[in-house]
Amino acid sequence: MIVPTTRLDWMPDESTTRNVRPATAAETSDPRAMHAANRAAWDEAAERYEGWFDEALELIRAGRSNLFPVEHELIGDLRARPGALGTGKRRAIHLQCAGGRDTLSLWNLGADEVVGIDISPRMIVLAARLAEAAGAPGIWIESDVLDAPRDLDGSADLVYTGRGSIIWLHDLDGWAAVIRRLLAPDGRLVIFDGHPAEWLFDADPEGHLVATAYDYFGGVEASKGWAPEYIDRLSVAEDHQSWKFARAWTLGEIVTALIGAGLRIERLVEYPVDWWAGHRDLRPEDRGRIPLSFGIVASRGD
Ligand SMILES: C[S@@+](CC[C@H](N)C(=O)[O-])C[C@H]1O[C@@H](n2cnc3c(N)ncnc32)[C@H](O)[C@@H]1O
């Protein structure tokens, strides 16, 4: 199964897969309905993010960043950028910002103004609370990425997204078009997200690399429940949680959507970085041999 949320990589064991199934044709024909379902599921999962509030606050107050070194390298020196707002201010827009920890990390990295957009109202409330407690500026917008407000168009020095974001989207062309319109003329897109190939591999009991039964081209998966490595201890029991819809888009599909929107891909990098510790059972020497994440840097292309 997919993502840091569902378990496509689990073995086909009745007890663990009853709440994981391929989406039906009727479900996949309606991307907006899948997004609405994901909104409900993420509102439930926000409970786990609320539990991370204190450590997130400590990190932001200390001026640190939650991002990986490879992300810092992709983003580069934000302070060296001229600023696209005509005021010398550098704006970073974080799509699918969740509880705001990564968004406010961008502030600590030199963005003067950060904008977080997320479909989950509970995540947006949490992000605003984090910013207020940290004394940090931030604009928090509850919205489907596909409906990002038009008044942000052309204003982003940086559009940043990833860490388990793209799998929740079911209109990649619409997503790429939004990124294109948000970017300032000299702005850049930076993505750091899970590599779709990560679901092809798992660890045997000794930590050796083994192939899973995962179908790389399988399309949308519907699921209830979350991978315990990522989200555990929700107060809503799994059977009562909302169905959610995820798709491990291939690298080809992601890149093609960005190119189709007119963006110019500057870099596409694959990493062994185990970004959500989903492969921590693998021996380190095996973990380093497979792609677990990827990065993209793109410009507006005009
Ligand atoms: C795994 S989190 C993203 C990573 C995040 N930076 C973090 O700190 O973990 C996925 C986020 O995407 C949001 N999301 C899912 N579908 C969305 C959509 N269509 N538009 C906007 N946000 C969406 C969820 O509410 C959730 O907060």
Give me the CATH architecture, please.
3-Layer(aba) Sandwich
Spatial order of strands in the largest sheet: 4-3-2-5-6-12-11
SSE string, helices as H and strands as E = HEHHHHEHEHEEHEEEEEHEHE
Proportion of helical residues = 25-40%
Determine and state the CATH class.
Alpha Beta
Q: Main beta sheet, described?
A: 7 strands, mixed
- For the secondary structure, the number of strands is 12
Radius of gyration: 19 Å
Mean pLDDT score = 91
Principal-axis shape: globular
Helix/strand-derived class?
Answer: alpha/beta
Bound molecule kinds, no repeats: S-adenosylmethionine
N- and C-termini, Cα separation:
39 Å
CATH superfamily: Vaccinia Virus protein VP39
- How many domains would you count in the coordinates? 1
The helix count comes to: 10
Low-confidence runs (pLDDT<50, min 5 residues)? 3-16
